[in-house]
């Protein structure tokens, strides 16, 4: 059986599982010999879909570009950039207020220790399909009402969407553009992307589910912006992912800096807007598994590069009840490619 048929059968099998309504997958090798695009269920291979937290890679790219142009500095305080936003009282740990001294680097590396606004009642609203809009001010209020994760600079990354909401505001303040304008002029236009944008309005592309409940949440999705509110396609995500990993969007030395990995939560490590997945041998019957670098999203979205086999894997399940599901799925894909991915 040809690799294309094997991968399509894998997609079909995944889509036949409980609470699965759509699966789309794009796989490409660095040399182009493997090039697959498939779908099952409610989706087509060219369907636009919300990429969820994979959007953080776009936000990180914009931040690093601004650093390279000297418009901001990684160790600059966020408060010095967001002069119209009061960050005092946002992050108080053991009586010490760290809000005004948080840096761009700490937000990008998820080492600020800020609470994750998504873990407020917003997470439950999303799962119940209760739609509502919010802005940065509301994000900061939701964050302040939650217990902080730790003081900044602990040496470990703690995942927080609040970090990237603030980074989105930094981008807008530094460029004088909206987040979407910055995205279009600095990433999409240079790469020729026409279907990738910050979500606006009610068209969110492929419908998102929580188990079997259709989530009609366009206002939540459009409010996520820099931490999870971008829409794209498999083809355009592949162009972006390749450009990102091949250092076409920023200097190689900055690409290396972005891969300073901190422990996040098993089996993930975090860099600068990047996740790393490397399974230990005790989980894989002592067999080595590829390292994956990229990002995942709460909707089952994923965009990763496996350097050792030189394979790019992108897709989504568009369901929120099992966000870690893509990890096992990607390793199955890579296993099949390794076995059957010879010259086309």
Automatic annotation (TrEMBL):
Keyword presence, Transferase: no
Domain of life: Bacteria
Alphabetized Gene3D superfamilies for the sequence: DD-peptidase/beta-lactamase superfamily
Molecular function (Gene Ontology), one example: serine-type D-Ala-D-Ala carboxypeptidase activity
Residues in Beta-lactamase-related domain copies: 30-323
Short name of any one Pfam family annotated for the protein: Beta-lactamase
Keywords in alphabetical order: Carboxypeptidase, Hydrolase, Protease
EC number: 3.4.16.4
Enzyme's top EC category: hydrolase
The UniProt record lists the keyword Nucleus: no
InterPro entries from the UniProt entry: AmpC-like, Beta-lactam-related, Beta-lactam/transpept-like
Identification of the protein by name: D-alanyl-D-alanine carboxypeptidase
Species in which this protein is naturally found: Candidatus Rhodobacter oscarellae
